[in-house]
Specification:
The chain has about 260 residues and is α/β, with parallel strands linked by helices. About 35% of the residues lie in helices and about 20% in strands.
Length: about 260
């Protein structure tokens, strides 16, 4: 009986270790769901835009789109979610160009026409900083608004904390990616997660105004994530609850649009 119990315990431990190994080795495939576009893909949109390619230190290409408003007041530096590519993410641009802001949207490595693949948090931050630094050559930094959605909120918070943009806007942020993953899968220990994405820590270093939007019916990133982040915010910052809003579609939410027009005069 004891031998059988011991064998069962060993078998369970082996299975858990195998599971942990798979999680560690393949977590990029569990977090990121890129859509690839051929390098000769031709973007077509009804508004004025410029395609921008950036070269990384390891000779990879990062592809981005810069949408242009008439007489722009500044730039929205937009970091998108964990799936798709620029051909679909571009649909958010008119919301901001109508308010008089140019919009730059970056495709991460392996997304769209961007080459390479994501393999570390440091690489994500480095690539985002490369794109931000490029935009600084074109716009005064006090005219740049950093905006992150979903997975992009952690990167946006890091970029804002490491620079001095005009404002940081977060749509459906997580407290940290570790917190989100453990909320969904408590069995996964924190030390296995390579992508910590500590939004909570980055926000403490943000001196610019911060505005958080989160739907209270979010089925992907639990709403309480933002309630926890709200406790970190400065007195002048703002947390806006979007009643009845799910994870997708925040950009079209009437309350979001109303507040956006107020904070981006």
């Amino acid at each position: 009986m004891k031998k059988a119990l011991r064998k069962m315990i060993i078998a369970v431990l082996v299975l858990i270790l195998m599971l942990y190994g798979l999680v560690y080795l393949f977590q990029e495939k569990m977090i990121f769901f890129p859509e690839k576009l051929s390098t000769d893909y031709q973007f077509s949109f009804p508004q004025d835009f410029e395609e921008i390619n950036l070269q990384t230190n390891d000779q990879k290409t990062l592809n981005g789109l810069l949408f242009k408003a008439q007489n722009p007041k500044g730039l929205i530096f937009y970091l998108h979610g964990n799936a798709g590519a620029l051909d679909s993410w571009a649909e958010v641009a008119p919301t901001y160009t109508r308010l008089g802001y140019d919009v730059f949207i970056l495709d991460y490595r392996g997304f769209g026409k961007s080459s390479g693949r994501i393999h570390s948090q440091a690489q994500l931050f480095s690539d985002a900083q490369l794109a931000y630094s490029e935009m600084q050559k074109r716009y005064q930094e006090d005219k740049i608004v950093v905006l992150g959605y979903s997975i992009g909120t952690g990167m946006a918070s890091k970029i804002a904390a490491s620079n001095q943009p005009k404002m940081l806007i977060l749509q459906a942020p997580y407290f940290s990616l570790v917190d989100l993953i453990q909320h969904k899968f408590p069995i996964i220990p924190a030390f296995l997660i390579k992508y910590q994405l500590r939004t909570d820590q980055y926000l403490k270093e943000c001196k610019m105004p911060v505005v958080i939007f989160h739907g209270d019916q979010d089925e992907v990133i639990y709403y309480e994530s933002s309630l926890k982040l709200e406790k970190i915010l400065k007195a002048s910052d703002k947390m806006v609850t979007l009643k009845g809003q799910a994870h997708g579609g925040i950009t079209d939410n009437p309350v979001y649009l109303k507040v956006l027009a107020e904070i981006l005069p």
